[in-house]
Every structure is written in C-alpha cells, then in structure tokens.
Amino acid sequence: MFREEVAERYKQIQDEICRGLEIADGKGKFEEELWERNGGGGGRTRIMQNGAIIEKGGVNFSAVHGKLPEAVKKAFNVTEDDFFATGVSIVIHPNHPLVPIIHMNIRYFELNEETRWFGGGIDLTPHYVFENDARFFHHKLKQACDDFSTEFYPKFKTHADDYFFIKHREETRGIGGIFYDRLKPENTNLSWEQILDFSLNIGETFLPIYTELIDRNRDKDFTEAHKQWQYQRRSRYVEFNLVYDSGTKFGLETNGRIESILMSLPPQANWGYNVQPEINSEEYKTVQLLKKGINWI
Question: Which domain range does residue 238 map to?
Fold first, then answer.
C-alpha cells in the first residue's frame, strides 16, 4: 500500500538523520521513546540533550490514524472521518549562539484515494544572520526543488516567508526556507511516486546542510552577550510555535503526544522587557534581515 511505503521511507530518513547528527555532534546520543496513540498508530520520538553542540534536538517519526476531530474536518474542509498521517519532524536547538536553529518537516496526509496530499518544508532560524550561510542554505534548497520543478523554489520560498512570520512582532521567525502543503498530481504535474521522491529529497537535504552550518560556526568564540541574545531570539521561536504553528495545533487537536509536539521548544528562552539592539550592532543587523522577500540566491 502506498501509505505504508511512505511511512517506511520516512522511518529510513529518521534513521539516517539521527546517525548523521550523532556523528556531527561528536558527543550526544539520541534517546528513543516508542509511543502509541489512543485512537490509532504511534511513533518514535528521538531526543538528544546536552550534546557537544546540540543542546536539545528532536527527530520524530509518527504514523497515526483514526477519526478526525470536528475542528480539523472544518479546517481541512472535508466531511470524511477516517484519516492517516505520517511524517518526520525535526527541530534542533544548538547551545552555540552562532550555530542556527533548524526545523524540518515532511509529511503525508490521507483521507481516501481522492483526498490526500504531501506537505512539509525546511527553514533556518539563526540567532545571528550570516549572509554567506543564508545564501548557502537557500542555494541547497533551490537545487533540491529544481530537481523536480523550477517553479517549486520561488513558490515555496514565498510560502515560507508568509508562513514563518510572527505577525504580532512584524518579523519573520528567521531567514525562511521552503514551505509547501497539499501537493498532489493535479497541482504539481508529478505522479504520487514523484511527489514522494521530492519529499524524500527534501529529507535527504537536511543533513548535508546542517552539518555544514555546524562545522562553519562551532569553533567561533562567543561572549555572554551573544548567549543572552540567543535566549532572546529563542523566545520568538517559542511565540511562533505556540501561537501560529499549524503542526502544533494539529497535534493538540488530534490528541497527539504532548512531549513529541512540544519538543520544538528550546530548553531555555528569555523574555526581556522591550529589548532593543544597539544601532549598527550585530544584533541590530540581524533584526534588519528578519523580513519577507529577501532574495538570498
């Protein structure tokens, strides 16, 4: 069955990424927790804490099924009850303020043969924006998209800018990336197998991107002021995930596993009152780059 193939391939992606991150970190190991969902299905939550670079990171796989709650049926504009959803979700919070936070999600959702789709994306949230790193990141995503359609990157980059936007702060969560939803043959000119291959391609892009960004920045010196700014930027990440993130909402509304849903939150974040960076400081320059529509290519 197609959905079983998707789930199996996503499990392989989880395995590959966990192995690669342990090597990149050099010290931390993932702890695995197997869980079952009341109502159907379950998953493998893998968390690394207090590594050499990764302070808290989660690489989660789930494949769940059951009855769709009314609120979700309304949001998806569907009438059917029985759903299946599988995906891999990753959030990595480094301890080093010059190494960025990264998030990736690849997922497949199915109600029936007619109503099913792929979604996902990958985005970067640097505490300090380094323009060379931003260009590298976006180039890699463009390459991954161009393998399937030259229309994907510009479209999905715009979606990411719009989606990862903290409206009440009027700033983007980070430097964006790509974000896509409801991909199916009718709107991609690809077969279901090709869309699965695209989804897997995004998953396989994660490790080479993030290990490169770790290696570029892990040996740089930093100060206590850098750490305080990191905690401040993390608080914005928390605000987005708790107020706007659709994955968080879907997990909570479908009786998902709380620890797995909220693994995206950092181990520490600070909310200083009315924090304003000094004009022309590195912090100030970073804030100027937290806006939609920057062409990093």
Answer: 1-289
The CA dihedral of 268, 240, 118, 256, to the nearest 10 degrees, is 60
Residue 294 lies in a domain: no
For the chain, how many structural domains are there in total?
1
Quick one: tokens of 293?
A: 């529509």
Q: Is 149 left (phi over 0), alpha (psi -120 to 50) or beta?
A: beta
Q: Which residues pair with 96 in a beta bridge?
A: none
Q: Is the pLDDT of residue 256 over 80?
A: no
Q: Is residue 297 domain-resident?
A: no
CATH value at residue 204: 3.40.1500.10
Across 185-195, average pLDDT:
97
Question: Are 14 and 88 contacting, i.e. CB atoms less than 8 angstroms apart?
Answer: yes
The β-bridge relationship of strands 54-67 and 116-125 is unpaired
Q: Report the predicted TM-score, pTM, of the whole model to 2 decimal places.
A: 0.95
Q: Which of 103, 138, 139, 226 is catalytic?
A: 103
- pLDDT of residue 53 exceeding 80, the answer is yes
Q: Which amino acid is at 242?
A: L
Mean pLDDT along residues 241-245: 94
In a domain, 295, yes or no: no
Q: 114 in helix, strand or coil?
A: coil
Residue 277 banded pLDDT, cuts 50, 70, 90 = very high
pLDDT digits (tens, 9 = 90+) for 171-184: 999 999 999 999 99
Burial of 79 (0-12, 13-18, 19+ CB in 10 A): exposed
Q: 236 — phi, psi (to 5°)?
A: -65, -40
Question: Residue 103 catalytic?
Answer: yes
> Any residues with CB less than 8 A from the CB of 75 and at least 6 apart, and which?
none
C-alpha distance from residue 209 to each of 90, 104, 135 (Å): 14, 11, 11
> What's the distance, CA 203 to chain centroid?
10
What is the separation of C-alpha 118 from the centre of its chain, rounded to a whole number of angstroms? Answer: 15
